[in-house]
Amino acid sequence: MGSFDVIGSKEKAVAIVEVPEGADEKKIAEEIIRKHKSVKSVLKKVGEREGEYRTREYELIAGDENTEVMHKEYGCSFKVDPQKVYFSPRELTERQRIAKQVKPKEKVMVMFSGVAPFSIMIAKVQPEVDKVYSVELNPDANRYAIENVRINYVGDKVILIEGDVKKKCQTYYGKCDRVVMPLPMGSENFLDVAVNCLKNKGGMIHFYNWGGGSDPFERAVSVIHKTLIKLNKEYEIINKKIVLPYAPGKYKICIDFKVR
Question: Where are the domains of the chain?
Answer without folding.
Answer: 4-67, 89-259
